[in-house]
Amino acid sequence: MTARIIDGLAVSQQIRAEVAERAAALTARGLKPGLAVVLVGDNPASQVYVRNKVKACQENGLHSVLEQYPATLTEAELLARVEALNEDPAIHGILVQLPLPAHIDSHKVIETISPLKDVDGFHVASAGALMVGQPGFKPCTPYGCMKLLESIGCDPKGKHAVVIGRSNIVGKPMAMLLLQASATVTVCHSATPDLAHFTRQADIVVAAVGKRNMLTAAMVKPGAVVIDVGMNRNDAGKLCGDVDFEGVSKVASAITPVPGGVGPMTITMLLVNTIESAERAAR
Ligand code: NDP
Fold first, then answer.
1. Residue 64 Cβ contacting ligand 1 at under 6 Å
2. Does the complex come out with an ipTM higher than 0.95?
3. Most buried of the four, 10, 53, 71, 221, by CB within 10 Å?
4. CATH of region 30-117
């Protein structure tokens, strides 16, 4: 079997086109959707991420504000900025780029963002809403993974989904979204003995670990759908996921590549969340 490659770039472009239409409709009504991106310090990877987020806003008709502060910014100063953005009617989404410098409590910062503008979906209120099935912002990466499944007509209902990883930003919300979609969900992590025992039973595998080649062909049931969230570098410095793409694509029925799979979806779902927030403000 040769797996179908799930084209995250194409799905992303399609959703971004819808975002641009919705942004134009809101703007025509006098409410331009706005995202504030806050960066503290000079982490090079974070600088690339925030630049890409701002660029995606510009390309799709959203207003964006990039606030950059030196690593010496105090926690109190950052909290005051977040509170000011909470009150700013031109801003519908607030994203504080993580990681923050060690002297700032990330948890406190996230909890200061208004749940109405928490487009990253990291606030406890957003996580709680997801847990109990209430409306709220879904974390962008798992939300994007759900859209990728949808794009290939893979309905999780009745399927066994195995999520590898249990972080608050990927693994746990991914498991919740799959559960909401009526999959039977197993969550594996570093203390799971015999990971392959679980993955071999899965109709859908989502790998969100951060270790390259950790999911091999022998661990995958023939015909399974494999979503690779991992972002790692191989020995040559090339971007790669958690999945042995070569091997697994011979066993799976569909698979996301890295790059070009989950990656482009994360920023796209950030735009979707910001648009949804602005639409709510316009009601
Ligand atoms: P974390 O490091 O927070 O979580 C990794 C998870 O993997 C943990 O739950 C850990 O278990 C588990 N784990 C570690 N080793 C093993 C193992 N040998 N077997 C099974 N489980 C294991 O990472 P994130 O969730 O933040 O990110 C995961 C990956 O996804 C990273 O590569 C990251 O770069 C990437 N990523 C990609 C995004 C994208 O847009 N494409 C967005 C966000 C993340 P335990 O809890 O027990 O420690």
1. no
2. yes
3. 53
4. 3.40.50.10860
